[in-house]
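Troubleshooting: if your tokenizer reports a length mismatch, compare your output against this known-good record of 414 residues.
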Amino acid sequence: MTHAELHPCVIVHYHEISLKRGNRPLFLRRLQENIARAVSDLGPVTVVQRPGRIVLDLEGHEHAEAARERLDRVCGIANLALAVRTGSSTESLKRAVDHVIGVRPFSSFRISARRAFKTFPLTSVEINRELGAHVLKVRPQARVDLEHAELNVHVEVLPHEAFVYADRRPGAGGLPVGSGGTVMALLSGGIDSPVAAWRMMKRGCRVHFVHFHSVPYLPDTSIGKARELARRLTQWQYVSHLYLVPFGEIQREVVLAVRPMARVVAYRRLMVRIAEALARQTGALALVTGESLGQVASQTLHNLARIDEAATMPVLRPLIGMDKIEITEAAQRLDTFETSIEPDADCCTLFTPAHPATRLGREEIEAMEGRLDTGALVRAGVEGASLETFDFPRGAGAHAPSSARRARLAPPRP
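Known-good structure output:
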């Protein structure tokens, strides 16, 4: 690279991955793959790992801003910025600073320099002074403000190149999707469950979805919502599998055997068993629900204990200590809230009593379930499930475009 060259790029920093020590290369490789997948339909790009950072080369790219926006939804990124890559000489740095400043107005600024190797002839403080003096020459009306600068120009100097940028913004954080195993999330169509699924993605999990519906006893509006929520969440994990389980006939059987006040818990126990059977087919190691302690009758501590007793794999509840306001704010940031509040005919509204029990005992629910052929009901749910696959970007993977592929087969194990 000559000193005069300035190459556009996105510079990506990570934080939690740095703590992984011996496993760090595995996490970084997954993060690089996810970055490349997130922008795969925007034109050819090169993703390069550099010490402590990842660089998305945008030389000749027509969609630089779109690429940066896509990376906002890549889990594992601590912060990112559109930057210019240049040589590591002082003159190259000055040209890059001029390019980054451009014609933007500002009355105060600071230079934040970091050198990644100690043999560079200037220390970080000296780089700050040299480049700050240069900015004062070209913008004499500006002043240096180290505490509350309107413009903060970041300079990162590596042995053979440097990166200069001004508009750094926070990333999604967490760990790269696909680095933490696979889970099966119960997706209701409400506000809570999409947020719970997303929180597991941020912890590195790939999430499959299962939605229980009561067609033809109720309209198929909840299915449409589940599809839209899965489509939106796929922007965070690139491939999603959605199982649609017909639950109406199963609910009819429950009504015949279970007292009204216990039906909600009986429904949830059967959902857990069916979701667990589907999870085992796909290699998922845990279930995920959007339950929050005490939010509704089925989510009291006693009833959650009764529900968990039906499971043989872990049931994860990322929202368990959050209140409705916190969950709603998260859904709004996630852009699932408007879809979640659309009216629908959720299966939980079918055959649901007005006053469900809040403190069911184990013997009580097991006695009522004893009148059910639980194994047959679980098999009916699993065998009746249909599968839909979603991709992001559309058609970018080995799967068909979003919602186009439907089957009654489990997806390949990860």
